[in-house]
Amino acid sequence: MPFDLPPACRELLAGQANVIARSQGIVSGVETDTMRNRLRYGHWQQLQRGVYAAFTGEPTREAHLWAALLRAGPDATLSHNTAAERHGLLDQPSPAIHITVPTDRNPARCGKIPGAVIHRSPSILGKRHPAMTPPCTRVEDTVLDLIQIARSFDEAYEWICRAVGRRRTTAERIRDALDARQRFRWRREIELALGDASEGALSWLELRYVRGVERPHELPSAMRQVRVRQGTGNKYLDNRYGEYRVCVELDGAAAHPADEQWRDKRRDNWNLVHEKTVTLRFGIRELRSQQSRCETAAEVATLLCGRGPTVGAPCSSATCPVSSEACCAS
After folding, report:
1. Cα–Cα nearest to 25, from 17, 34, 215
2. Closest CA to 155 of 189, 127, 128
3. Could you tell me where the beta strands, DSSP code E, fall in the chain?
4. With CB atoms 3.0 to 4.6 Å apart as the test, which of 101, 181, 182, 305 could cross-link to 105 if both were Cys?
């Protein structure tokens, strides 16, 4: 970076991944001709219209984010998938840079930014993280924004699971952010889902198990995400029925590659040998339809009844195979 730039400009560049908007350069004391010459002789490069990188070589991801934000104008904030990337909810950079600007922003000012998707919100300033740079929505508001554009409720719940499961926030904080929004898609369902997430149901499969297997068939509530110490370290059990010494895992071959299946088997064997705990494994096929959930409930109820007090009752489905009498007979 050239050292003949005014101190105010150098300070600005240091805080913006060496990226600067033309308007910022002028305010910080850099003449328009100076910026034009630096571009002409290759000392700087243009990343967006009116936004420059004060270096040569390949721009970093951070530089591209700053460039898109500066092109979008004052109060622009990284949001949605790009904010999820910044908060560690995505493992790869989002293909497009998602930016939210105030609703009253002139559409012509930021309507077409190469590589960016523009969203609008009347309350974007209240959703910004107080310390993160580049400016980014808070993790709770990021989750809620992604729920609003989710293609299905399962996809929406997956964002809650990622945020809570990766310890980026809590279900309670997401609920507080939800309460601050007047209109919201799936509000009632999301409120219920946040309650399930706070109790440890941290995947959409687990949510289906709780709502489609346990509750409608009057099975006991399992302890969720129970940590157990094993010889190779701590392991987490999805659903543990402690009194019955039964564990229900929701993954199996349908969800895990071969190496993880091997670790699953090791965990199951360890539970059986050291804690006399029997493990049942279910995947999407066992939880997809009403009938398959009823059949899964019948399997769980039969095993529980054989190892402890009688539990289980048929749900509202006329063909539900769960019955207390059958459990007792087993």
Report:
1. 34
2. 189
3. 19-21, 45-48, 51-53, 77-78, 97-102, 116-121, 223-230, 233-241, 246-250, 278-282
4. 101
**pLDDT value of position 257:** 43
Quickly list DSSP for 122-166. Answer: TTHHHHB-SS-SS-BB-HHHHHHHHHHT-SSHHHHHHHHHHHHHT
> Cα separation of 225 and 247, whole Å?
11
Give me the DSSP letters along 207-251.
HHHIIIIIGGGTPPPPEEEEEEEETTEEEEEEEEEGGGTEEEEE-
- Helix, strand, coil tally for the chain in percent (to 5): 50, 15, 35
60-100, pLDDT tens digit by residue?
999 999 999 999 999 999 999 999 999 999 999 999 999 99
C-alpha distances (whole Å) from 51 to each of 21, 54, 68, 274 are 4, 10, 8, 63
SS3 259: helix
The whole-angstrom separation of Cα 156 and Cα 59 is 33
Cβ proximity of 66 and 48 under 8 Å: no
Query: Quick count: other Cβ atoms within 10 Å of Cβ 231?
Result: 7
* Residue 74, preceding peptide bond in cis (omega within 30° of 0): no
Asked whether 129 and 121 are in contact (CB, 8 A), the reply is no
Question: How many CA atoms lie within 13 Å of 184's alpha carbon, on the beta-carbon side?
Answer: 21
Query: Does this model's pTM top 0.70?
Result: yes
Q: What is the rounded distance in angstroms from the CA atom of residue 208 to the CA atom of residue 214? A: 9
Cα gap 193→318, rounded to integer Å: 27
